[in-house]
Design goal:
The chain has about 350 residues and is of the alpha+beta class. Helices cover about 25% and strands about 25% of the residues. The chain contains 9 helices and 15 strands. The strands form 4 sheets. Strands 3, 4, 9, 10, 11, 12 and 13 form a 7-stranded mixed β-sheet that branches. Strands 1-2-5-6 form a 4-stranded mixed β-sheet. A two-stranded antiparallel sheet has the order 7-8. α2 (about 95-110) packs across α3 and α6 (about 260-265) crosses α7 (about 305-325). This is P1 family peptidase.
Amino acid sequence: MSGYRGDTAPHVGTLASGATGTIADVSGVRVGHCTLDAGEVQTGVTVLLPHGGDLFREKVPAGTCVINGFGKSIGLMQLEELGVLETPVALSNTFAVGALAQAQIRAAVAANPQIGCGLPTVNPVVFECNDGYLNDIQALAVHEEHYVAACAAAYADFARGSAGAGRGMSSFDLKGGIGTASRVVQAAALQYTVGALVLANFGRLPMLTIGGVPVGRELAARAASNRATQEPEKGSIIMLIATDAPLDARQLRRVAMRAAAGLARTGSVYGHGSGDIAMAFSTAYTLAHDAPIHALPPLLADSQLDPLFQASADCVEQAILDALWSASTVHGRDGRVRLALRDAAPDLADLLAGGAQA
């Protein structure tokens, strides 16, 4: 990290980023937010769209990995069994899962009126983290219209940090939220892109490690009281990984599993109370809903996956740092505050430079 200035997160690893350094570097992927910022209500919805078409009709292959299952997501069982994603992915707070699943079902039925009648039912996919430290989660403030608004606002250029589902999230006793990253790799003599989007809501301050430097220990030592930082891990993280490499669901689960390596590098130990879930999908091809035979493109051999594994780990680590750097300080319920990392540590660049030299 020689010469690091601190205005952006340090680059993780040796792989190059894509053009924008976001998950949208994987062609076709879009992300949208609807943010609820009203006093005690500090929450929102984030949606990820793998492509611009009808996902129920043109599904994408996907695989999941539950690293620690303290979570209330919807859709994982069928996703694991069938290996396809057939709705946009929705992110929000724990108590919003039901409302968002219903919104996804209504949207799918509006596009395909025979769903549940002449057609099979649809599998909504919703992931959550508990933003109850800052947000009045009991207000049940997230409704169908917020999902619709997030979908309508989905673009390749999207906000990070304290936006959408990230509005009320905390990481390492600091402000967490939405983060993203991308990497470009070579596999089987061809170039592919891997991108990650995270909803970061995990970790205790003393754990925080940035580029191998345990800066959280120094920040915790400075705190007037360390009582809060000694509480058990109760957070969660959702890690979504996209690639344009031609992989099947089994291979995508293997890519998703490597997200755990990137998560661990930031200091996480996947605590008892943490829901740590990763999902990977490919945009290289789609699977038509009503096709009697799926003609797949040539898939990468398993022996060629190592660059994608590395990219998955690096992207997730980078996306977590991006969430911390992009977040703004948020004042929430009952006078609670989560400081943004750079507000809590104005000398962060010096801490990182000193730790790297040591």
